[in-house]
Design brief:
alpha+beta, about 20% helix, single chain, 4 helices, about 180 residues, 6-stranded mixed sheet
Length: about 180
């Protein structure tokens, strides 16, 4: 997944379950939030990155890039988007009269292995993980870089990552586009 660091303003962490990750559509899919919840997804723009946090495993497990975000009625959701979404018990599809917020994404990428949140040094600076977390890209791009290091096997996933080394690497990449 490419991330244009000049265009990206936000990095989001979306919380879900292993069931969702295993069954979600991989391309041109829809991530929906529980009905009548109001996460601040409206500030996300095309190209912003969402990291997938599995709260049932307490680990990062994948990512997707935002195409568009919307707040829609239950009727519109079922008519246009339900076939591209996957329903889990903690995020049921909306009922008539409900409003739902969705993120339309291009490609969903699962990591080769789970990355336990407690193995990422300084993760507590991100704040509580779970339902949804919105972060400024310029301040928290290190988190994506750390996860990429683990998924590419450049370090042992049982070790905590060295924040100083990661920040130096991020500085070196700051004028480039990150690609897998």
């Amino acid at each position: 997944i490419k991330v244009n660091k000049k265009a990206s303003k936000y990095l989001a962490i979306v919380g879900t379950t292993s069931e969702w990750l295993n069954n979600a559509i991989r391309e041109n899919g829809v991530f929906h939030f529980p009905p009548n919840r109001k996460p601040r997804i409206n500030v996300l723009s095309k190209g912003d990155l969402c990291l997938i946090y599995l709260y049932d495993k307490k680990a990062f497990a994948g990512e997707f890039r935002v195409i568009e975000t919307k707040e829609i009625t239950a009727e519109e959701f079922h008519k246009k988007y339900a076939v591209r979404a996957y329903e889990v018990p903690k995020a049921p599809f909306p009922k008539p009269g409900d409003v739902v917020r969705i993120i339309i994404y291009d490609v969903l990428r699962s990591y080769a292995r789970l990355i336990p949140a407690d193995k990422i040094e300084n993760i507590k600076s991100v704040g509580p993980l779970g339902f949804f977390r919105l972060l400024k890209w310029e301040r928290y791009q290190w988190l994506h870089h750390k996860i990429r290091q683990v998924t590419k096997g450049s370090i042992n996933s049982t070790q905590k990552l060295d924040l100083c080394k990661v920040e130096k690497a991020v500085d070196e990449l700051s004028k480039e586009t990150i690609e897998d």
